[in-house]
Amino acid sequence: DEKPYPDFVYAHPYVTSSYYTATHTIEILEKLYEIQVEPKKDRLPDRERGITSRLAILRPFCEFDADALPVTFACWNSLVPCRAAEVDLGDEGEENEEWVLFDMAVNGTGRKLRKSDEDKWECDAPSDFEKDSEQQPWIRGITNSIFKRCKKKPKDYFDDVPADALRTASVDLFLFYSQTFSENDVAMKSVDEIMKEFFSPGGWSRCFDNIYAIEANIPKELDLYIPAAQEELYSWVNGPNRQYEAGFRIIQSGEWGDYDGFYLMEGDSVPVKNYWLDVIMGEIKAHKPFAVLGAQYDGDKWDAFYEDIPLSLLHHTNGNGIYNTSHPLLERLTGQLEVEAPCPYNSIPYDYRMSQMWVEGTLGIVPQLATKIMLNEEGENITLSDNTPMFSKWANRWKDEVPYRFTKAIHNYAATNLIPRHLGPEYVIHGAKLYSPWDPARTKVTLVIMEWFFDRSLNLIQKLDSKDHPFSQVIIMIPPSVTNTHDYTQYTAVPVTLQFRDSSDYMDLCSADVKTEWFMITNSYHQVSRHVDLMFTPGKFVPVVPFTPATYPFCLKYPYCKEIIMLSQRWN
Q: DSSP assignment, residue 368?
């Protein structure tokens, strides 16, 4: 006989998600009841337990990435989210919170607190009882006037993360499916796997109070994300737009708990340093009050067309950010997204669209939509309502409060390839792929230079030793008619070999006599960069060849680019 479902799955809030009544892994539900539901039935409210803030982390996923969801949590085991989990995950810190007694007597011989160091220490303030010299015992008054009990303050820089970041705050993790769990076994199995890890002893789960599985209930046929159609189909991004709105309303409703807001953390938001959750919580506290706290684009993919990018896109806060569900401006922005769902403005991703609303309100710039999207079924232009007066009213009310704020703890690199050297103060990166740098002990690389004369490559060779590069050998491909008499040992310590071509120059790629496993090819009109940042896949250590995805938005706006994509796809 099959085990019956626990009773709690039919009660609020669990009954609002089909996962709890559809999963086949009853053992997970029993563990959830034992660890999460039953112990917290009679627990005191947050305020009475000293919890002053509660954050929801929403991990959104859809049908096409449901299977890979558990893999996105792998780095949470190697990069400790909070100090509470560092012992379990084998990264115990060296610093302890030790109290120190400073001798405050003028002629005392104990440890002194120097005036210049006072800002570095946090000292006990005397209680009301201690302040009243008439009430406190004589010996205690003498002791308090002679000694001061202090502990070191955490430094401002992120790397010295305070150990008590989660002592007065609580964080819950939400696995947030765009459709309905009961209609997708893959989505349920992925959640089962994460739940199983969460309820295992120790690990990153110690940084979270609860874990939940929630759903947006978007019909499958409307759960769309088709970047290639963003110039023709107004609903191309309907899935992410509706999922954001659903997440906002679920957290705002209080059904699952009273939250100050939520961090929308997609699967490609990857922690890169320990204590990233502690830092996020500290940043939320430091930047309050805000409507949205996040990051603008920090990558380099936009460099070639930077001047053509709309202001609202340049300065928009990426969707992977922290949202204050109680802020009246964010309520209005989200409400407007819901109103615009059936119209052409739905062709703009929710984070960018909210930025457009704000820019239209503050600067009066009305966004331009794609020509085809502005046509109705009869091919006639659609007339959109004039929202500028309403947006201006919002801007006048909240612009002085700076409702959009930015944190260095999160960086948005969308479609940028990185190695650790490129990272700065960020703790979580979004949209980037982090690769391993070149390791000379593991990989030898040859540089092949295509030459058509006898000395054009000399400029490159002369400056080679002043560059940070991976090349262990250089091969210069020259025509058979050229006589090259340069002694390259005068210019570089890297061995240089001359090779005469026995075929056309475009065959250098195939005919160069390379002895190493890998090589790079260039021509004599180039120089070696100051830093040659070769990227390798972690683990297998295979070189990475960067490319721009065919679905990248700006490519699809140019006919020649779309034509290249179509021709390339015919090869399949």
A: P
Report d(CA 424, CA 62) in Å as an integer: 31
Q: How far apart are CA 223 and CA 471, in angstroms?
A: 48
DSSP 279-301: HHHHHHHHH-S-SEEE--B-SST
Which band of pLDDT confidence, cut at 50, 70 and 90, is reported for residue 93? very low
> Is the per-residue pLDDT at 131 higher than 50?
no
Query: Token pair of 384, please?
Result: 């959109």
Q: What is the pTM of this model?
A: 0.76
Considering only CA atoms, give the Rg of the chain: 30
Report residue 77's pLDDT band, with 50, 70 and 90 as the boundaries.
confident
Q: How far apart are CA 99 and CA 96, in angstroms?
A: 9
Q: Evaluate whether 103 touches 145 at the Cβ level (below 8 Å).
A: no
**pLDDT tens string 468-481:** 899 999 999 999 88
> CA-to-CA distance for 521 and 543, rounded, in angstroms?
14
CA 84, 89, 93, 98 dihedral sign is positive
**Is residue 223 within 8 Å of residue 239, measured between CB atoms?**
yes
Q: How far is the C-alpha of 356 from the C-alpha of 371, rounded, in Å?
A: 18
The CA angle 224-229-233, to the nearest 5 degrees, is 75
- Report CA-CA distances (Å) from 49 to 83, 211, 516, 544: 20, 20, 63, 51
